[in-house]
Design goal:
It contains nine helices and four strands; from the N terminus they run H-H-E-H-H-E-H-H-H-E-H-E-H. The protein is an alpha+beta fold. It has a four-stranded antiparallel beta sheet with strand order 1-2-4-3. Helix 2 crosses helix 7 (116-140) and helix 3 (54-63) packs antiparallel against helix 8 (153-160).
Length: 205
Amino acid sequence: MEYGELVRARHSVKTYAPGVNISDETLRTIFEDVVLSPSSFNLQHWRFVVVRDQAMKLRLKDAANGQNQVADASAVVVICGKLDAYDDAEAIHAAAAPEFREGLVSKIRGFYRGNPRLQRDEAIRSGSLAAMSLMYAAKHHGYDTGPMIGFSPDEAAALLDIPDNLLPVMMVVMGKCHGPQPERRGRLPVSDVVRLESMDGAELA
């Protein structure tokens, strides 16, 4: 599927067909694409918990205000952002030349340490980029998805043994759409959302 087709084919789906299984092999193929997402300093803040067990999906449904798609989807992916990802800098950049690595690691640590707001913002940014990659990769491999923020992060973390240094950013439900694909909701025209050179600038022709 060409990129333009993929973008237009992806819809946020809430109703999922029962009995659809997503194998470990398929998940690995999807996530091999997802982990190519960009992140600040290449820190790769994202961590994922994939839930396919029906009993756990039902418990997550309770944590998500009873939304049926959590229980009905083939898998629920909880995307987390690592708040202290800067501590991974040395390992991530281990292959770099020592003189470059030492300066870069020092810069990264100085940038994030002691700044919890920046740590949180970065975890959410990177997790969100990975979530979008996940939705496109899943569609490319024939699966529908729906992003969700309507859940209790604290309850999800307790259910899934997510430690305090990982922030649940969103959930993405995944499976096969049950029934016709929903129509895409109205989108603002490009002329309403893009300006050239400044927010007071000209519309994109």
